[in-house]
Structure to design on (113 residues):
C-alpha cells in the first residue's frame, strides 16, 4: 500500500544511490588521490607538531607481511563484529516478538473466559 502524495522508499534509495555515484565519479575524476587510513594521517600531524621528535610508546605485536593481508584481517574483524551485533539484535527482536505473542495469547484467553 503506497502513501498518496509521498515518496516511496524506492525513490529515496534510488536518490541516495545516484548521489553516491555522482560523488564517486566527481572525486575519481579530479586528480590523483592517495587513500590512507586515519592512523597514518594522525602520525603525520603528530610528526608535524612535534618537529619529528615523537617516538611511539609501543611497537606492534604483529606486523602483517603486506597491505592485502592487513586489509583481510581488518575485513575479517569487521565481519565477526557484524555477526555478533546482528545475532544479538535478532535475539532481542525475537524475544520481543515472543513476549508480544505471549501477551496477545494471554489477552485472548481472558476474553474467551
Amino acid at each position: 500500500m503506497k502513501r498518496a502524495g509521498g515518496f516511496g522508499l524506492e525513490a529515496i534509495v534510488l536518490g541516495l544511490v545516484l548521489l553516491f555515484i555522482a560523488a564517486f565519479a566527481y572525486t575519481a575524476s579530479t586528480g590523483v588521490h592517495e587513500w590512507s587510513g586515519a592512523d597514518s594521517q594522525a602520525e603525520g600531524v603528530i610528526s608535524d607538531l612535534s618537529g619529528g621528535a615523537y617516538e611511539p610508546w609501543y611497537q606492534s605485536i604483529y606486523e602483517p607481511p603486506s597491505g592485502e593481508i592487513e586489509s583481510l584481517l581488518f575485513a575479517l574483524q569487521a565481519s565477526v563484529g557484524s555477526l555478533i551485533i546482528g545475532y544479538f539484535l535478532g535475539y532481542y527482536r525475537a524475544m520481543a516478538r515472543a513476549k508480544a505473542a505471549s501477551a496477545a495469547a494471554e489477552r485472548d484467553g481472558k476474553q474467551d473466559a
Observations:
- Residues 66-113 form one domain.
- The first helix runs from residue 9 to 29.
